[in-house]
Amino acid sequence: MSDRPTPIPGPREHSPGTAKALALPAVAILFCASCGEETPPTVAGRVVRVVTTAGGVAMVRLPGGWFEMGSDTADQVDETPHRVYVSPFCIDRYEVTQEEYERRMGKNPSRWKAKCHPAEQIRWADGVAYCNARSESEGLHPCYDVETWACDFDADGYRLPTEAEWEYACRAGTTTLYFFGSTPAKLDRYAWCKVNCTTRPRPVGLKRPNPWGLYDMYGNVWEWCNDLYGEDYYASSPERNPPGPADGQRRVLRGGCWNSRPDVCRSSYRLDENPGYTDVCFGADTRGFVGFRCVCRPPAVKG
Questions:
Q1: What is the pTM of this model?
Q2: Can you tell me the distance from the alpha carbon of 136 to that of 16, in angstroms, rounded to the nearest whole number?
Q3: How do residues 93-130 score in pLDDT, each as one tens digit?
């Protein structure tokens, strides 16, 4: 495999089982073949498509839909259930790898360096800078203003997911605490977390995907969302495409990391963190094991 994927002219669609060959090393490809995805996943009866971007990154194309965001079964004051609609979007099938991050940004801040591992120790501004760089490399309009980091949601480039988009993608049509059920008994099949991983992140895509073909939505590394954090935001959140609070000092993280307890890896679990970590924080705090994945507006493809 080349260190730099050969760009292709525009997004194209393919079956879920072929996506790994474009982005991951052989070890992950073999795992994907062994777990098998014989029937393409669906959203409201429509097949979920895997698309490959012009830069060679696999994304999952999700139709929009309604879902119940939050949870009334967890003892968390900031997870009040509420009904939300998100418009169609595409989301990276895997957490952004160190190889992909470095080829866009020319550097790799990760502590445990390996090409197929998720980029980690990523500050929020690092993530959005990557989004802009990836957009520009494909001739798309960047979503972020480099002076204010305000997000243009109408731009056709890449950005971090909103909290609502992240949870919608993670739940994959489910209503239980985890996308595989209401207890964490099967978590080790889907996530690198405290029950099976006590030393460092692992290569992306080695665990089973969620029902919509997304890998590592639980565990491995925390994932930045675009939103500022508000503990009581759900009480006033708009029903359609909530962008998060207008003001705040901290940003939202989702999904847990390799050192997270099972209850932290729930679909609705929210963590807020200072977006501008210091190096000392990264070395001392497990929440510093942070990465991300990107979203964008659906490409102009059929299906």
A1: 0.85
A2: 27
A3: 999 999 999 999 999 999 999 999 999 999 999 999 99
